[in-house]
Amino acid sequence: MLSGLLARLRLDPRLTSMIAALIVIAIALNLMTGGLFLSAENLYNLSIQTCVIAVMACGMVYVIVARQIDLSVGSLLAFSGMAAAWVQTRAFPPDSTLGWIASIGVALAIGAAVGALQGALVAQMRIPAFIVTLAGYLMFRGAAFLVSDGQTLAPLHPTYQALGGGVDGAIGVVPSIVLGLLASVWVGWHAWTARRDQRRYGIEPAPVWVDALKIALMCAAIAGFVWVMCLAPDFTNVDAAGNPRGRGIGVPVLILLVIVIFMTFVAQRTRYGRYVFAYGGNPEAALLSGLPTTWLVWSLFILTGVLAAIAAVITTARLGSGANSIGQLAELYVISAAVIGGTSFAGGTGSVPGAVLGALLIQTLDNGMVLLDVSSPMRQIFIGIVLIVSVWFDVVYQKRP
Amino acid sequence: MSQLESPALAAAPAAGRESFVRMRQIVKRFGGVVAVNHVDLDLYAGECVGVLGHNGAGKTVLIKVLSGVYVPDEGTIEVHGKPMNFRTPHDAQAAGIETIHQSLALADNLDGPGNLFLGRELLTPWRTLDSRRMEYEARNVIKRLNPNFQNILDPVLRMSGGQRQSVAIARALYFNARILIMDEPCAALGPAETRMVLETIKRLKEQGIGIFLISHEMHDVFEVCDRATVMKNGSVVGMVRMQDVTPDEVLQMIIQGKRPVQAA
After folding, report:
1. How many angstroms away from the CA of B197 is the closest CA of chain A?
2. Across the interface, do A270 and B101 touch by the CB < 8 Å criterion?
3. Average pLDDT by consecutive 10-residue portion of chain A (401 residues)?
4. Which residues of B touch A291 (CB under 8 A)?
5. Is the Cβ pair B107, A278 closer than 8 Å?
6. Burial, A26: exposed, middle or buried (Cβ in 10 Å; 0-12, 13-18, 19+)?
7. Which CATH architecture has domain B1-96+177-259?
C-alpha cells in the first residue's frame, strides 16, 4: 500500500525511505540525548559538518556511476588546503584580502591540475583508477606534510574563516528568509512548467492534488530548515538587550546547495551528464555511439579534484588553520555517502541528492554519537555497519520485480 | 561469369541501380593478425546483402570499418560515389550509415529515447537536453516499428529482446539512414520477434534503403537477402545471388571456403 502511494505521488522510493530513516534516527537520538540533538544550535552544527563530505560526494557519484573510483580526495583535500593556508600565511602579509582570494584560486588550481593528472593516467595511460588514486592517496598526504614540514599554518583571514560557517559564517535571518521564499517560488514554478510541457506533448500530467501535495511538502521542508537555522543563536552577534541574534543559513551550506543544484542539473539536463550515465551503463555502447569516452573519464577526475579543493577551503576556514592531518578517512566517508545514497558500483546508477542525504545520514549518526559520548573507534564501527546494512537493503530491494 | 572478374564483384544487381557503398581492397590488421584481407564489397539501393562466415571470419571487423569504429589500414570506401575517410562513428553516421551492432550498443540504464538519441541528443535553445521532444519523437518512430511497444520510458534493462531490438532499429531509422548495417539482429530473439525484424527489413528495402545483414541463420538470409558475400579467414570466398544457390551450397562455401562449381 505504501509503495502504491509512493508510485502515485511519483516519489523516488529510495530518497523517500532515506528521509524517513533520517527522521526516525533524529527522533531517537533526540530522545537519547534529552533534546540536545534536535536543538537549533546542534542542527546548525550538523548542517556545517555535513558540507565537507557532501560536497565531495556530489563528484564521487559521477565517478562511481562511470565505473571509476577516486580514493585520493581526502589526501587531495589536505594538500590543497595546506597550499591555501600557505598562500595566506607565508606568501601574503596577514589580513591581506588579496591573500585569501588568491589562496582559494591556488587551492582550486591544484585540485584541477592534480585531478587532470590522475585523469590522464586513467583515461590515456589506461592505468586502473583504483591504482592511480591509491597512489594519489599516499602521495598527496605526503605533499600536504611537505607544504610546511608538518607545521600547522595559522591564522587565516577572518573573511576567509566565514566560509567555514563559524564566526560570521552565516548569512543572517532576513537573507535566509528571502532565500527560502525564492526557493519556494522556484519549486512551484518548476512544477508548473513541467505540467505545461507534459500537456504540450500530449502526456497526461499527474493529478493536481499530487503536485500540490508535493509542493506543500517541499515548501514545508524549506520553511522548517530556514526556521531552525534562524533560531540557532549567534553568541558573537547580540542585539541591544544582549540576546544573541539568529544565525541563518551557513555559508558552507550555501556553497553545497549551489554545487548540488549545478551537479543535479548537469546530470539530468546536459549531454555531459547523459554521457557519464551512458558510459557507466555500457562503456562499449558509449564507444560505438561515438561518445568522447577518453575525455569523459578524464574530466571526472578534474571534477573530483576541484570539489576536493572546495571542501579543503571549507575545512581550513572552519578550523581557522591549515593542518596536514585534515581530511583523513574523508575518501571512505565520501564513497560511503554516495553508496548509501544509492550509487551502485556496477555503474550507471546514482543520484546527487541521494549522496547528499547519505552524507547527512553518516554525519547525523556521528554527531548524535558524539553527543552520547560514544568513543571514536565505536563510532567508526557503527558507521561501517550502517554502510553494510544500507547496501544490503539495496540488494534486497533490487531483487523485487 | 568471366574469369577476369573478381569473385567478390560478381553477381552485381541489374544495371542502373544507384550504388550506395563501394568498398575496395579493405585491409585491417590487429598486430600480426590480418582480420580483413583485401576485401571488396558493394551495396546498391534497395537491396539486402548478406555477409556470411564463421565466427572470426572477419565479418564484424569489416562492418566496423564501414561504421567508422575501426580505421582501415588499406583500401578505399565510396559512399554514394564519393570517397570517404571515416575516423569515428560520427563520420559514418554523417554519411547516412547507421549500424545496429550485435550487442545492440544500448546503455541498459537509460530509457528508450535516451538510447535512441545517444550521441545525437536533441537540445533546447539553451543547450540543455530536450527530453520531452526526444520522448515525443521516439514514440513516433517506435510506433511505426512496433505498435504494441508503450513502455519506452523504462530503462532498456527492463525491456524484452524484441523491444530492445526495436529501440536499436528506431535509432537507425530516425536519422533517415540510407544505408543500414545489421549485425546478427535476430540472434537473441524469439520466433515472433524475428518475424518482426525480417518484415522490417523487407519494408526498408521497399523504401530504397540498402542493408548489410550479418547472420548465421540461413533461413533468414534466404528470406530477405538479394545477394550474399561469404568470408573465411578475413578473405572473401565469393559473392552469390540468392536465387542462384541453395542453402547447402552457401553452407559449403562457409565451411570449406570454396565456391561450389554450379554457383557461378
Report:
1. 21
2. no
3. 66 86 96 95 96 98 97 98 96 92 98 98 97 97 96 94 91 95 96 87 82 93 96 87 90 97 96 97 93 96 98 97 94 95 92 96 96 94 89 72 39
4. 118-119
5. yes
6. middle
7. 3-Layer(aba) Sandwich (3.40)
